[in-house]
Amino acid sequence: MDSDRKSIRFERLRDGVEFPVRATAHSAGYDLKAFLLGDPTVKLSLGSRQYEGVPKHTADGASLQLLPGERAIIPLGFRASLPPGYEAQIRPRSGTSFKTSLAIANSPGTIDPDYNGEWGVLVRNDGAEPIFITHGERIAQMVIAKYEVLEFEDGDVRQTTDRDGGFGSTGHR
Q: Whole-prediction pTM value?
């Protein structure tokens, strides 16, 4: 029965796509690599302008230039099916965040178990200079998380502590 499945179904959409892997046995996240070979169309945006781009191919491989402030959905070359009750959280890699101006634009992004399209990572260039994303570059990490679905019900919510100040309300007064 599919609801008992504890594995991720993985479908390669292009030749050469590899499974996401964890760097060590104790890593929580699976590294996600940009897949820019072939003819992928990359969705880009800068401000309110949205457009499509194609990675530049050279003898060294393929790369995509991101201008300062530009966002892109970087294709991963696969689609996957998560078991019911699990989500994939797409997060920055600490090394990438420290060494470059590449940011995950909707961090953490969520991929739901019923999404069946190609997986991609929404990135943004937060720097003042153009940056290049190259084919096979580790651009993000994916953490698998179990979640619960709860129902909402009408009712009064009683104050149980003196915390009624909202954001920052746990600070010292």
A: 0.83
